[in-house]
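DM from R.C. (forwarded with permission)

"hey, sorry to bug you on a friday — could you get me a structure for this? deadline for the figure draft is monday and I only need the backbone to look sensible"
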Amino acid sequence: MTLRHVIWKVGEKPTALPASELTSEQQLESMIVAAPSILNEQWMLIGRQLNAGPAGRIDLLAIAPDGALILIELKRSRSPRDVVAQAIDYATFVQNLKAEEIAAIYSSYAPGQDLAADFQARFGQPLDEEALNASHQIVIVAASIDESTARIVSYPNDRDLAINVLCFQVFANGEERFLSRAWLVDPAQTQVNAAVPPGKEKEPWNGEIYASFGESRDRSWSEAVRYGFISAGGGPWYSNSLRLLDVGDRIWVKAPGHGFVGVGRVKGQPVPAGEFKVSTPTGDRPALEELKANYHRQFAFDSEKAEYFVPVEWLQTVPLEQAI
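My reply, with the result:
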């Protein structure tokens, strides 16, 4: 399978824009550094041209809201099969990075800046050093991929290893150039693969799940306790992790920057904010009419950015000030 797509100019006689190309791999890298959302709106760049010892130099390194690291390898021309092996070699270096080494990488990338402070400003929650680099992803960025590369990337993903390919194509419209992108694997699936340790299917799963609840102006832990739920939203990265939950799972909830605050049983599947209801003395009511925190209300009917709620039966909870 080779990823190709076309951009059409709208009109009475639609015309396809001719394919073009970037002048260099460095041009694409510079564009990504200037606008990281070209890759993913939920990633924060923390390193560029990183020395990985004998493995070589990593083009870009990013961090996700859950502390996972994303290793990004750029290839402007057709991506050969050995690019995958090269990226995996880089990953053997990344997986051993300690918190202080990651902070040093960021200091070199953004002199005078502090990783923890910038992470808090970017994601609205403190950086949990225990979760930092607990998992990682590999992303290969290429102009196109051949079928053998696609097969090689699909194989580890089918076995819950997080590797993906992002194809960029350039189109011309007169003097203007346009950039489009397409993922080989659904990024949500790659995220889940990064979150679930390889081998989960080889041993019985005990139903114990770690969950993060980001107490902020967007959500309230006291409301979660009162009405029985956990929630996440603001982008696919946050809400997609709720896909890991099955009815009956026991979840241990940690509020970043505070500690563990509750344990409960999952009672249902994730529900978008616009459809979720909570129980009140007068009956079930729409959550956004009853709850006081924001819960990304502005995105209530945006399937990607909406807050998603999972109903929970609490077994034990404590206030934030008593977090463990």
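R.C.: lifesaver. DSSP finds nine helices and 17 strands in the chain.
me: no worries. The first strand starts at residue 8 and ends at 9.
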